[in-house]
Design goal:
single chain; TIM Barrel; binds iron/sulfur cluster; alpha/beta; about 240 residues
């Protein structure tokens, strides 16, 4: 259990770990952290999807719990995810005010649990962009447009979206996606490891416009927003307001 790098004030709870989507930006961040655990768990070290049932009892003390944040829960056997949900329900009797984030790049996985999630579970997905073209070089996860449709289809009242690490996008399309999803919160941030991984990023001006427009209809939480972005070998500096 540790502070979540994804969500400020949150702690990750990892009764399941691992993912096979192989996003190119994951290796220097999430996966690098787990490389320190070689002695403790070789599956964590290799980011292979696997269970840690001994952690089921140990829900962290934070207000927001990022459930299985070191991986993508869609690789978790459903019967085990039911156990995770059951454990949350049990814990709610003593601590009813926590919020649990379940996040996946394959939101279709959540369909089977919709009737079982308690009131304090928020479902999230990542939409780094609305553009599918070239996405297969970024990740093996379902393409953004497919992910959006699957997430939209979930008949669930509490949703959030992570636009991180942000990649170049079409403003009006991405805004229309967000409006139709009706998220209670949207996280927006750039790739925090630009030296290790270069992504097709939007300009800061464009991202700030997106943030302002999102703020007209939902809560927006800024993540890593740099003051300078690399551009053809030069650094173009912008004032971030
Ligand atoms: S989906 Fe998440 S956990 Fe899986 S490789 Fe991508 S960033 Fe890492």
């Amino acid at each position: 259990m540790k502070q979540s790098r994804m969500y400020e004030g949150a702690k990750t709870w990892n009764p399941f770990v691992g993912c096979l989507f192989n996003c190119i930006y994951c290796k220097p961040s999430f996966q690098a952290q787990l490389k320190r655990l070689k002695q403790k768990c070789s599956n964590c070290y290799n980011y292979v999807p696997h269970l840690h049932p001994e952690r089921l009892k140990r829900i962290p003390s934070a207000k927001i719990i990022f459930v299985c944040g070191d991986g993508d829960i869609s690789f978790c056997p459903p019967e085990y995810t039911f156990k995770i949900i059951e454990r949350i329900r049990e814990h709610n009797r003593r601590c009813p005010h926590k919020i649990y984030y379940f996040q996946s790049k394959d939101p279709r996985y959540f369909e089977q649990f919709l009737d079982y999630f308690p009131y304090n579970v928020v479902l999230l997905t990542t939409l780094e962009t609305n553009r599918d073209q070239g996405y297969d070089k970024i990740s093996k996860a379902p393409k953004p447009s497919i992910r959006f449709k699957r997430f939209l289809r979930l008949n669930y009242p509490r949703k959030g979206v992570t636009i991180e690490p942000i990649m170049d996008f079409d403003l009006e399309i991405l805004l229309s996606w967000m409006r139709s999803i009706k998220p209670e919160i949207v996280y927006v941030g750039y790739n925090s490891r630009p030296k290790q991984v270069q992504l097709p990023e939007p300009s800061l001006r464009k991202t700030l416009k997106l943030i302002n427009r999102l703020g007209e209809f939902t809560a927006v939480q800024r993540k890593y927003i740099p003051r300078c972005l690399p551009f053809r070998g030069w650094r173009l500096c912008h004032i971030v307001k």
